[in-house]
Structure formats: C-alpha cells, structure tokens
Amino acid sequence: MHILVVEDDNQAAQYLIKGLSENGHTVDHESDGKSGLFMAMENTYDVIIMDRMLPNLDGLSAIKTIRASGDTTPVMILSALGEVDDRVHGLRAGGDDYLVKPFAFAELLARLDVLSRRQGDIKQPETSLKVGDLEMDLLSHSVKRAGQNIDLQPREFRLLEYLMRNQGQMITRTMLLENVWNFHFDPQTNVIDVHISRLRNKIDKNFDKPLLQTIRGVGYSMKVADD
Predict the structure, then answer these.
(1) Does the N-terminal or the C-terminal CB of the chain have fewer CB atoms within 10 Å?
(2) Are 13 and 49 in contact (CB under 8 A)?
(3) Domains of the chain by range and CATH?
(4) 141-156 burial, b for 16+ CB within 10 Å, e for fewer?
C-alpha cells in the first residue's frame, strides 16, 4: 500500500516508517498538519495515518478538510487521547479508525489491512462470504458448512461475519470489542471468550479441519488450517 504518515514526533514517525517499509509498504511522511493536508490533497494514497496533535493544523481539522473535498481515503487516527469522547470526536471528524498510543505494531498492521479492504468493499458490496467449505449468505442471514445448516444467534452471526470478512488476518480482542460489540475499551469481560467458544463448537466441532484459529496472546484468525 501507499501510505501517508502525518506525525510530528520524529521517533514515533521513524518507528512507523521503518515498520511499514519492512512490511512492503511505500511511505510518505509529513511532520505538521498543513503539510500533511497538502500531501493528502495532491496525491493518491491507500491509507492515511494521522496523528491528532499536530503543529500548524491539528489532525482532526485536516481530516475534516479532506472529507469536505469528497476524498474517501481511509484515515487512521493515532493519539494519546484515549477516552471514549476523544474517540467519538475523532470518528465524527471523518476518521475511519482510532488507535491509542502506545500500541502494538501488529495491531496497527491488522487495522490497516482491514481499512484497505473496507475501501474495496465500498466499491463492490458483497452478498456472501466463504472460507473453505464455510459459506455465509448476508442477504438471508444463513450459514452453511459442507452443505449443513448452522444456526447462529445474532451476535454469533456478527462475530463470524467480521472474522470471515477479515479471513487470513490477525484479529485482536480490541478489534472484536470495537467492531462487534461497539466497546471502545476493554471492560474486563470474558464476553469474547464465551462467544468464540460457542462459535467454534458450531462451525468446527463436527468437521475435519478447524477454521477458527487462536493466535495465543494476540487474538484470532479465520482461515483454512494447513495440512
């Protein structure tokens, strides 16, 4: 992906540039809001990573201007401000995702992948999802594996849909809380563990190859297991 990083902290910027470049992405960097806005308006990017607190022009104002121009490039906001109100203001300003500092770089990469695919989904809406022999019909809200019907509760359906939409990617607990339960913080609940366990029993228990993989200490991934 071609990514614009707008970050005034040089150490943080170099950390992002190095990590993104090592993962095969092309990175442009600006250290203030006005320069970042100019680059965003003059170039085409797959994703923009925007710090919230910037000199000359703050990140949220830059994002509002980008959106006012009709530009729909996905924007991830980075900020040390992590309260619910801070996140809400960032998303309402036009941000597509909000990641609180400090963060795990693996989660940043996963979120960027989700944002880039989400942009593609806007252009070509999906009516069905498929992972191996597991199929989901988004119109009829039905799920089958190897031709067998699988009955899911509404929250289980939403959880499976999110996992299938991001198949092959690492999905953290935070991402599930924010996108499936609409929690913007971890309320020290075992809700994810309970639903993952129920979902695994329904889609994997009676079949040869498990699809719902646990990545210990990180999160989950939906993919066909290697032989």
Answers:
(1) C
(2) no
(3) 2-123 (3.40.50.2300), 128-222 (1.10.10.10)
(4) eebebeeeebebeeeb
DSSP the chain: -EEEEE-S-HHHHHHHHHHHHHTT-EEEEESSHHHHHHHHHHS--SEEEEESS-SSS-HHHHHHHHHHTT----EEEEES--SHHHHHHHHHTT-SEEEESS--HHHHHHHHHHHHHHHHHHHS--SEEEETTEEEETTTTEEEETTEEE---HHHHHHHHHHHHTTTS-EEHHHHHHHTS--SS--S--HHHHHHHHHHHHHTTTSSS--EEEETTTEEEE-PPP-
At 100, list the tokens: 């609180």
Token pair, residue 50, equals 């925007």
| Token pair of 92 as six digits | 């309402």
pLDDT at residue 202 tops 80: yes
| pTM of the predicted structure, to 2 decimals | 0.54
Residue 127: per-residue pLDDT: 79
Evaluate if residue 120 carries a pLDDT over 80.
Answer: no
User: What are the pLDDT digits (tens) for 27-45?
Assistant: 999 999 999 999 998 888 8
Q: Are 7 and 29 in contact (CB under 8 A)?
A: yes
Structure token digits, residue 112: 């960027």
